[in-house]
Specification:
Blueprint (H helix, E strand, L loop, with lengths): L14 H18 L4 E3 L2 H7 L3 H6 L2 E3 L3 E6 L4 E5 L2 E5 L4 E6 L4 E6 L6 E4 L8 E7 L5 E4 L8 E6 L2 E6 L7 E4 L22
Antiparallel strand pairs: 1-13, 2-7, 2-13, 3-6, 3-12, 4-5, 7-8, 8-9, 9-10, 11-12
């Protein structure tokens, strides 16, 4: 928790530099009180056995920036001197969802698949996440046709391309700040050797 420090003026010229140092310490205290995000994994999901209603109350976040794009240009081609030329003027529609953007659970189309929306107004704009066994069963972005450079995802009923690195974009949760998370803890008393 941040602590407030009373700053009293010093009688010499070091006063300004001391104020700056104390100000930076105060900012650092606030920053350290931030969210402690943890990757959402199948292990976490199974351990807490959350219901659909519980999932709707959990705040999800993105682990990294995610860029989606699709070509919406009406390219025209024509043959000139035996070669194909494309008069480009390409128009690309791009969607950027930044790291740390909050999202909410919308539905599960099947077991271990979450539709998560990051759009504040449209539930139809969602992305699918599911556990990846090669990535410690963390819930990562699901897509199709992942190649060397890109893959395809559906967002808002349209197909977008995204960088292959996006396949490692993970859902994150704030375990300490979530009101929907129930903590089960047990303190072991120890076990001693019985003498016979």
């Amino acid at each position: 928790m941040a602590q407030f420090i009373e700053i009293t003026p010093l009688p010499n010229e070091k006063s300004n530099s001391m104020k700056k140092i104390l100000y930076l310490l105060l900012i650092f205290s606030f920053a350290s009180c931030g969210k402690k995000l943890t990757p959402f994994s199948q292990y976490l999901y199974d351990d807490f056995n959350w219901s659909e209603r519980d999932l709707q109350r959990i705040q999800f976040y993105l682990s990294s920036d995610l860029v989606l794009w699709r070509d919406i240009s009406q390219d025209r081609s024509r043959i000139e001197e035996g070669r194909i030329k494309v008069k480009s003027g390409r128009q690309i529609e791009e969607v950027l969802i930044k790291r740390g953007t909050p999202g909410t659970y919308i539905f599960s189309p099947k077991e271990n698949r979450f539709a998560i929306s990051f759009d504040p107004f449209n539930d139809n704009k969602y992305l699918m996440f599911g556990p990846n066994k090669n990535f410690n069963h963390q819930y990562v972005l699901l897509g199709r046709d992942w190649g060397d450079r890109s893959g395809y995802v559906t967002y808002g009923g349209k197909v977008y391309q995204t960088d292959t690195r996006s396949s490692f974009t993970t859902l994150m949760v704030d375990l300490e700040g979530s009101q929907s998370i129930r903590t089960r803890s047990q303190v072991e008393k120890g076990r001693v050797v019985r003498r016979r």
